[in-house]
Automatic annotation (TrEMBL):
GO terms for molecular function: hexosyltransferase activity. It comes from Pseudomonas cavernae. Pfam families: Glycos_transf_2. Residues 5-169 form the Glycosyltransferase 2-like domain. This is Glycosyltransferase. Keywords: Cell inner membrane, Cell membrane, Membrane, Transferase. It comes from the Bacteria.
């Protein structure tokens, strides 16, 4: 194993895409990697900016410039399908890698042939500097690392941001998807045929999170939509992976309670799911979800 691909998905990010690409190019590595940028038919200057980079380093960049907007999920999936490296990293076009990110994740794949997924902590930040906060640390083993498998991730749900994910390319099973999904969906996909994952207790990416931004999470309607997408992912794996149904049930129950606490109402589909499958309820698993979600939640504000 000697190569990697960094996938950058973007849409209307002319303000941020330079910072993102520069943060990738500044990474010091002992392995070769290419940068695949997939733009979802931006209407601002995003495409012209990424063309500038590709013109200067054609051997480094591969561009996918869509002529029609296909949406976040399809753009993400098709871009990752085009990756050719043995290890694939993902970053959104408005996020920023911190020094050492690529090398530290890659080393864990190189040194552990059974590891399919590696991710790490993140720092949320806003453009105006009013919001900057780091995600917390889970219970770690020796060396500041946490090793886990599919049943653990099925129980916990997402424990970091999608710009922190890296996976072994041959571990992916799902190549096409027709609906929206969360990054947790593909994380589980990489663990569905055995293999394990490693979590690094270090902040290695800056994740842009403007309160008034255009992302789903910036509005209540958007947050409700994210919950709906996430529940659909849970239901998918509940059907396809019977070995982790108890974990997925606890995950769904905890997430339903979190949805109510966030004043986003409740999901009728999730309620019916929980009633129909109540025989999978294990109270100690619910407590385990709570402990993990609490440990990785953002810590006190830095600024």
């Amino acid at each position: 194993m000697s190569t990697a691909t960094v996938v950058v998905s973007c849409y209307n990010q002319e303000q941020y895409i330079r910072d993102c690409l520069e943060s990738i190019l500044s990474q010091k590595t002992d392995f070769s990697f290419d940068i695949l940028v997939s733009d979802d038919c931006s209407v601002d200057r995003t495409q012209s900016i990424i063309k500038e980079y590709a013109d200067k380093q054609p051997e480094k960049f591969k561009l996918i410039l869509r002529e029609k907007n296909v949406g976040v999920s399809i753009n993400y999936t098709r871009a990752h399908n085009s990756a050719t490296g043995d290890v694939v990293f993902h970053i959104d076009g408005d996020d920023v890698m911190l020094p050492g990110k690529l090398q530290k994740q890659f080393d864990l794949f190189r040194g552990n042939s059974d590891v399919n997924l590696v991710f790490h902590r993140a720092r949320y930040f806003s453009d105006d500097g009013s919001y900057e906060i780091e995600t917390g640390s889970p219970s770690l083993q020796e060396g500041g690392l946490m090793h886990f498998g599919m049943s653990d991730l099925a129980l916990w749900g997402p424990i970091t941001v999608h710009s922190a994910y890296a996976y072994r390319r041959n571990s992916r099973r799902t190549r096409t998807i027709s609906s929206d999904f969360t990054e947790w969906f593909f994380a589980l996909d990489s663990l569905s045929q055995n293999g394990r994952a490693i979590y690094i207790d270090e902040v290695l990416v800056k994740y842009r999170c403007n309160p008034s931004g255009s992302t789903y999470l910036s509005t209540k309607i958007g947050r409700v939509k994210v919950y709906s997408i996430y529940f659909r992912d849970v239901f998918h794996y509940y059907r396809s992976c019977p070995g982790v149904r108890k974990q997925l049930y606890a995950n769904c129950l905890f997430t339903s309670l979190a949805m109510l606490r966030a004043k986003c109402g409740f999901s009728t589909e999730a309620i019916f799911f929980l009633i129909r499958n109540i025989y999978n309820f294990r109270p100690w698993l619910l407590f385990d979800v709570f402990k993990m979600r609490k440990s990785v939640a953002p810590e006190q504000r830095i600024r």
